[in-house]
Amino acid sequence: MKLPSGTFSGIRLKNGQVTFRISPDVDGITASTVAKEVENHREELEAITGLQLSTAGIGNEVKVVQTTGKSPKYYTLTFVLCGIIATAILAVVAFYMFRQHHQSRQKLAQLSNPDTAEASKDYQDLCRQKMQSKSSEKPEPLHAATRIASVSEAQVRSPSSRSSTSSWSEEPVSSNMDISTGHIVLSYMEDHLQNRDRLDQEWEALCAYEADPCCTDVAMDTSNARKNRYSDVLPYNHSRVLLNQSTNASGSDYINASTITDHDPKNPAYIATQGPLPHTVADFWQMVWEQGSVVIVMLTKLTENADAMCHRYWPEEGSDLYHIYEVHLVSEHIWCDDYLVRSFYLKNLQTNETRTVTQFHFLSWLDLSIPTSVKVLLDFRRKVNKSFRGRSCPIVVHCNDGCGRTGTYILMDMVLNRMAKGAKEIDIAATLEHIRDQRMKMVRVKEQFQYSLALVAEEVHAILKALPQNR
């Protein structure tokens, strides 16, 4: 460019960059002109200086990188190694997630035969994994054991091998219960639970009670007999659930199920039924659909001590078709060791209508026995009622026979619902007789009746404790 001396000033080299200033006294020479000339003579400058020119511009320093003999293959090798490492990490993570998912599915599948020690241990481990975020929960208080002496320690306390994740303290007790009624009922319950003679006398009186009417000839008909799981547990004619014959798979209106009403005979609060048999699953879903039910309470495992209690009436995954009813398993959530919740889409293929049905499956209650804790079933009931709140359709409740565990749950729930609505008088024995008028053998053994008293006493105590003292 044949520039006079002094055109460039402040020349310095730092970090591979050459910077300088353009003297304003030189006519026609500006920083922009110099930058353009540098770009135009890039190759000549690189040949003269042995440097590689990166860029040039106004306000930006000219970055130079000294040309070396290093091969770009080192950079390529670095990128390749990084890619291999990243791929290996992703593969390990993917394999771990796949294995965990596979193990979870295997353990869930064992619920259909959970009586072996190994299956029980695996299931408990899976529950703990699902609920590990709640590992800091406080242990269940034991005041129920000291207040209700007739319930043994083994009945109230959960075994140490079980990890209870009850949300007892998470859901506040809310009730319109009359305080004076609550105290009277609590005193009555505790007196019966502590006085074995009074409990025995009341149970004997209940066993001697005979329902009227009690005709079961429809259930005993030869065309319906094979639809009964047990020949000694049959629905009464006047309270049995009637199916629509025109849409029934076998053209029948019979199912071993009974409507259970509380105060309104036209609107049953519950449907008590047996565990479905392989050939009555379609009838079961027809009943659920026609009764408008959206909640199922299942109180039995599929098998107990190698005895079939209930046929699996839902798909293990995806969807299954039962006559004209398509059932799709949407989700299966384990709340704790004692129960899990499944959500289904139930579709009527004739009308193309779809309904969501929620199943609450209680796992730790064997036939002709009671659970190990009162609080776990009360917590389970709260989950059920929270899902059911505001509904006017009946809750479908079943175990294996639809009377022992089913009757105990319905008795407890009916009494507590009455108290929550502010009932002034509660008679547990009379309530059970009312339920037995609608289905035979509801609450089969004395221990289940005693357990229902303990359930009511525990819940009433919790409600009274939560109520304001000045009410």
Automatic annotation (TrEMBL):
InterPro entries: IA-2/IA-2_beta, Prot-tyrosine_phosphatase-like, PTP_cat, Receptor_IA-2_dom, Receptor_IA-2_ectodomain_sf, Tyr_Pase_AS, Tyr_Pase_cat, Tyr_Pase_dom
Residue ranges of every copy of the Tyrosine-protein phosphatase domain listed in the record: 199-459
PROSITE patterns: TYR_PHOSPHATASE_1 (PS00383), TYR_PHOSPHATASE_2 (PS50056), TYR_PHOSPHATASE_PTP (PS50055)
Any Pfam family matching the protein: Y_phosphatase
Segments traversing the membrane: 74-98
Biased composition (Low complexity): 156-175
Keyword terms: Cytoplasmic vesicle, Glycoprotein, Membrane, Phosphoprotein, Receptor, Signal, Synapse, Transmembrane, Transmembrane helix
Gene Ontology MF annotations: protein tyrosine phosphatase activity
Cell compartment(s), UniProt: Cytoplasmic vesicle, Secretory vesicle membrane; Synapse
Domain Tyrosine specific protein phosphatases, chain residue ranges per copy: 378-450
GO biological process, one term: regulation of secretion
Cross-referenced Gene3D superfamilies: Protein tyrosine phosphatase superfamily, Protein-tyrosine phosphatase receptor IA-2 ectodomain
One Gene Ontology cellular component: synapse
Membrane topology: Single-pass type I membrane protein
Region feature (Disordered): 129-175
Protein name: Receptor-type tyrosine-protein phosphatase N2-like
